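Protein modeling request. Please complete all fields; requests missing the sequence field cannot be processed.
Requester role: graduate student
Desired output: 3D structure, token encoding
Chains: 1
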Amino acid sequence: MFTVRFYFSVVLLVALCASANAEDGPREAATVLVAAFKSGKAENVRKHIAVLELEERVAAKKELIEKDLIGIYQGICGDTAAGKSEWEIVDSKSDGECAVVIINESKKQGRPAQDFDPLYFVKQNESWKVLPRLSEYKSDVWKLKEEMIKKFTDLEAWFETRKQELVAKK
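Delivered output (170 residues):
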């Protein structure tokens, strides 16, 4: 016969695993994204990018927007594949279907560096995907629900506070 203490312990363990998993998801997705950038191929990165609806006024420019983004991704791929740039994952925080992962670009142009940046993620079809502009969620190009913008705004505030703590440590 199981005791109340046993059931309480099981419930607590499940809750702890669930909360750890909530933070691990975006962090794991960021790890996979960094590996995709290191591959040197923008097409490997594209499958990790969130698919967002475009604002009506820019919908006709979809191909130009995608071409611009591919150029950005290709530039990052080139630098990381060549060893000129290195990203390390530092911390993460999630709020429902929104998350931010802090990365440190520990190498820039082949030299040691310290540059903390956010990567904003959204959960789509049970997978964490990075927003198209990586470190930006405010956009007049993509439609985001108001509640998502609020969550990203709160996550941005957390990132700024955490960034100051990280800079002070190093």
